[in-house]
C-alpha cells in the first residue's frame, strides 16, 4: 500500500536554508479500522486504488491556533476529501479534528481537494479554494470556491461543495 505523509521544517529568516531536521506533522491513520479516521482510507476500502495519501497541506493561523488543512485519499478518485488538524505551533504536534472531513463528495461534485484559503475583498468572509470534479467533466479538475468559517468553538467548516446548475 502506498502512503504519503506531511513533514515540516523551520526555515531561516532569510529563506537561505533550514533549521533542524524535518518533523512528521500528519500521516494516514496507523490502523485501517479507525472509525474516526475511516474517511482517510476510502480510496482503499472502496477499492479505487491501494493508496492512502495525506497531502496538499495548507496552514493558517487564527486566534493563536494553527489550522492545517490537508487532502486525503487518491487525488484522482471519487473519495479525495479535505480535513484539518490543529496545533499551537506550526511544527506540531497536530491533532486531527473530530468533524473531519470538512469537504467531500456531495451531489454532482467529487474529488474535492488541494485547497488554500483567501478572503473576500472586505476581509470579512473566509473562502476555501479547491479543485473538484463533476459528473460532466469526469477526471478533468475544476476550481471551486466556497464560503468557510472557523466557529467560536474553534471548529472549521467549509460550506460546500457548491455548484451552479
Question: Overview of this structure, please?
Answer:
- This protein has 165 residues and is mainly beta.
- It contains 1 helix and 11 strands.
- The protein has a 5-stranded mixed sheet with strand order 1-4-5-6-7.
- A hairpin with a 6-residue loop joins strand 2 and strand 3 (18-26).
- The longest helix has 4 residues, at 42-45.
- It is globular, with a radius of gyration of 16 Å.
- Residues in β-strands, percent: over 45%
User: Structural class, please?
Assistant: mainly beta
Tell me roughly what share of residues is in helical segments: under 10%
Reading side by side through the largest sheet, how are the strands ordered? 1-4-5-6-7
The value of Rg in angstroms is 16 Å
Number of helices, counting only DSSP H or I runs of 4 residues or more: 1
Oligomer: single chain
Amino acid at each position: 500500500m502506498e502512503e504519503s505523509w506531511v513533514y515540516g521544517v523551520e526555515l531561516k529568516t532569510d529563506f537561505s536554508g533550514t533549521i533542524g531536521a524535518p518533523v512528521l506533522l500528519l500521516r494516514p491513520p496507523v490502523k485501517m479500522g479507525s472509525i474516526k479516521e475511516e474517511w482517510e482510507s476510502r480510496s482503499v476500502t472502496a477499492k479505487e486504488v491501494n493508496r492512502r495519501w495525506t497531502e496538499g497541506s495548507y496552514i493558517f493561523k487564527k486566534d493563536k491556533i494553527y489550522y492545517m488543512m490537508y487532502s486525503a485519499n487518491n487525488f484522482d478518485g471519487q473519495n479525495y476529501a479535505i480535513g484539518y488538524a490543529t496545533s499551537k505551533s506550526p511544527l506540531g504536534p497536530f491533532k486531527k479534528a473530530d468533524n473531519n472531513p470538512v469537504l467531500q463528495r456531495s451531489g454532482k461534485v467529487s474529488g474535492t481537494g488541494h485547497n488554500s484559503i483567501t478572503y473576500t475583498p472586505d476581509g470579512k468572509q473566509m473562502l476555501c479554494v479547491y479543485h473538484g470534479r463533476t459528473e460532466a467533466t469526469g477526471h478533468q479538475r475544476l476550481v471551486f470556491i466556497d464560503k468557510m468559517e472557523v466557529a467560536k468553538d474553534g471548529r472549521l467548516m467549509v460550506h460546500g461543495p457548491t455548484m451552479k446548475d
